[in-house]
Amino acid sequence: MLNNTRKYFIYARKSTDDKEHQVRSLPDQLSELRELARKEKIEIVDTFIEKQTAKVPGRPVFAEMLERIEAGDASGILAWHPDRLARNSVDGGRIIYLVDTGKIEDLKFSTFWFDATPQGKFMLSIAFSQSKYYVDNLSENIKRGHRNKVKEGIWPQMAPIGYVNETNKKGKGIVPHPEYGPMIRKIFEQYATGNFTLRQIKEKFNVLGLRGNSPNGLSISNYQKILKNPIYTGIMRYNGELHEGKHEPLISKKLFDQAQEVMTRKSKPKTKELKPYAYRGLFRCGECGCFITTETQKGHNYLHCTKRKGPCSQKYVREEVITVQMKNVLREHSLSEAVVDWLMSEIEKEKSQNQDLLVKEVGGVNGEIATIDSKLDKLMNAYLENALLLEEYQSAKSKLVGEKQVLKDKIALLEKKTTDRFEPVVDFFQSCKQAGILANSDDKAKIREQFHKFGSNPLVIHRALAAQSAAPYAFIPQIAQKASCEAGGAAGGVWGGMPRRPQFCDLRFATSLSDADFVLLR
C-alpha cells in the first residue's frame, strides 16, 4: 500500500567536481533513497540526476524538476540531504516558497527530518543557510590556500598544457609533461622566428598530437593563450599579478619576449609606408583637377600631376620652387612684429574699456534684478497676510520670475560677448605675425600648416601656385598696398618701416570695409 496518494521525485546530485567522487556518491545516494522509498511505501514518479554544482542558480535538471512539480506531476521530493537541493539562497528560497504555496507537500531526506509545519520550514531554512555558509567558507578557504601557495612559488590550480600536477614531499606542484613539455618549447621557438602565423602553428602541432584536454586538438585561441602565458618562463601570473614560481621553466625569458614582439607586430594592421613628403595631398592640378603628387629624382623632390583623369600637359616643378612661392604667400599675408605688438596693446586698452562698460551694464541689470526680488518678497508677504488669493499670487509670481530670468540671460550674454569678442582678433593678428616669421624659415611642415590657413583650394599650374586667399586673411595683401601708399611707401611688409603710428582706421580705410564687415577686427 503506497503512502497516501502523494507522488515523489528522487533528486540526486554529485557533491564534488572530481569524477572519482562522482562515481561513488551518485550510486550511494540513489541506493539509499530507493531503500527509503521502499520503507516508507511511497510512489516514485521519476528520478533526476544532476552533475553540476549548486553553488550558483541555473541547474537545468533541478529547474526541470521544479517545473514538473508546479505542473502537478509530483508533490514530494526525496533527496539525501537538503544541501543536495540547494547551496545558494535563490534555489533554497524557491523550495521553501513551493512548500508555502502547497506545490510541495512533503520533503524526505536520508539524513534530515522535515515536515511541512512552521517549525519544519524554519529548520529547513537553517539547513539551506548552513549549506550556503559551508560553500562560502570553503570558497574563501580555497582562495586563501591558493594565495599562500602562490606566495610560496607553487602553482595552485590545474597544470597548464605542457605541465602535469605532481605531489612531492614539499606539497603539490607542477612538473614538465614528458611529451607536451618539449612541444611547448618548440611552439615558442617556431613562432618567435616570425615566419609562422597562429593558424600555421595550430595545424603543425595539432598533427603532432598536442591535445591537452581537448579531444579535437587545440584551437587558435588556445595557442595564443599558450604564447602569452609567462608560466613557461618560471613566472606565474595569478589574479593579474606576477609571482616567481619554483617549477622548472620550459623556455627562457628572452625567447618569451621575442614571441611577444612577434605577436604585437602581427596584430598591427599592415599599412603601406609612404615617404614623408612635405606637401603630399595639399595641391591639385590647375588643368585637370587631379591631386599633385611628389617623387624623388636624382636627389631632388619634384611635384607633378597624377594624371589619373587622362592626359594633362602640366610639367614637373621642383619642391624648392613651390616652397619659395609658399613663403611669398605667407609674406603677403603677414604683419610685422612691431605692428602686431602695437595692435595687441590697443586691444588690451579696448578690453579694459569694455570691462569697465561691462561692469556698469551688469550693475544696472543687477539693480533691476534686486527690484524684482523686492517685489517677490512683498508679493509673498501679501499672500501670507491673505491680501492675495493663491491664483493671484502664483500668476504675479510667474510673471516676475520670468522677467528675472530674462535679466539673468542678459547678464550671461553680455559677459560671453565681451569674452568671445577679442579671442578671434588676437588669434588673427598672432597668425599674421607667425606668417612673417615662417616666411624666413625652412620648416616645411609649419610653412604648409600656415599656408593652409591662408590659401583656399590651392592649385599648381604652369609651375606656379594659384590660390584664393581665405577669409579673414583675404584683405591683408590689400592692406599692404593701400596702407603703404598712404604712408608714403613703407618698406618691409605691412607698415614695415612704420613712418607714422598705424591706427585701426588705417586697416579699415585700406580695406574699404564697412563696420559690419570689419567686426572681426573691431
Radius of gyration equals 43 Å
> Mean pLDDT, rounded to whole units?
79
Overall outline: flat
First CA to last CA: what distance?
A: 108 Å
- Percentage of helical residues? 40-55%
Q: Which structural class best describes the helix and strand composition?
A: alpha/beta
Alpha plus pi helix count: 15
Low-confidence blocks of residues? 18-24, 480-522
Report the order of strands and helices: EHEHEHHEHEEHHHEEHEEEEHHHHEEHH
The strand count comes to: 14
Please list the strands of the largest sheet in the order they lie side by side.
Answer: 2-1-3-4
What fraction of the residues are assigned to beta strands by DSSP? 5-15%
Q: What's the main sheet like?
A: 4 strands, parallel
What does it look like?
This protein has helices at residues 19-40, 60-70, 82-85, 89-100, 118-151, 180-192, 198-207, 220-228, 253-267, 319-332, 337-384, 390-438, 444-454, 476-486, 504-511, and strands at residues 7-13, 43-50, 76-79, 106-109, 163-168, 171-176, 235-238, 241-244, 284-285, 292-297, 300-305, 317-318, 455-461, 464-469. It is α/β, with parallel strands linked by helices and 522 residues long. Helix 4 runs antiparallel to helix 5 (118-151). The longest helix is centred in the C-terminal third of the chain and has 49 residues, at 390-438. The N and C termini lie far apart (108 Å).
